[in-house]
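ESCALATION

Customer reports they have been waiting on this structure for their group meeting. Please prioritize. Original submission:
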Amino acid sequence: METTNINKTKKSDIYNIDPRSIVVIDGFNSRTQFNVDELAEQIREQGVLNPITVQALKDENGNQTYRLIDGERRYRAVMKLINEGVDVPYIKAIVIPKNLSQQELYIQQAMRNEGEKFNEFEWGILASKMRDECNMTPSEIARALGKNPGVVIYWLQIQEMPEDIKNVVRDGKLSGSDLRRVLQGNNKDFDSARKDIETMENKAKESGDKKLSINSLDITSNTVIYKDSKALLKGLNVLLKYVKQYAEAEGKPMSDFVLNVPDIHKQLNEGKLLDEIFSREKGTLYRKAE
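Update from on-call: job pushed to the front of the queue and completed.
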């Protein structure tokens, strides 16, 4: 199916509208965490810095209203101030065309996602709506949102995880990428992952942190924590290249050679590069005793 790319959507004019005329459609917004108190104080002092996005509509009585497309967090903060007696006569808004499809509205929501960005859980909600309501494939969603298809697939996978697992991402306690590392380190076993999450929660409570950190896990346990798998793969390929070169030069199989891993590790910690430390002369590679 044909998709609209997020990067090709045009901006519309900005207007001042009465926030009391804004209508919020339940279930349209993909955001789950709003945290408006701090934002309300910022708006009290500086006003709304980024305009919200709306569609102009008429209600059943013919009165002008505006359907909220993006900016519910800003809208909620403004309404909180109004309910506290603060005079907010208008709010800046981008008014988009009335004839956009549901798919285009979701793309607008993604494009206008300013201020506090969606977390991976919230992106997953948006991707699920585009898949289920607009009959889009992950590749089509990725193209429309300007994202990598693998990222979109993972967002959708988060939505299918057990509630207690995915809620750590929903609540902003752990990033989706860190949850992926925990799951991969436990061979995608949810029970084992729960134990690691519990460990992180206990250590976060001890230190007074609101967010969880995979750095608090014991890397000597079954959990495999890695921060840059591409760098690791590159390093292993370099080692393999050197071993292959020595083996070919001496006409021996690669299995005849041994890497001095502790010495390599020691020199890497000293800031040396593999190209600098890897040689038989420096003891990082040697032949097995015959």
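Sent to customer with the following note: The longest helix spans residues 229-250.
Escalation resolved.
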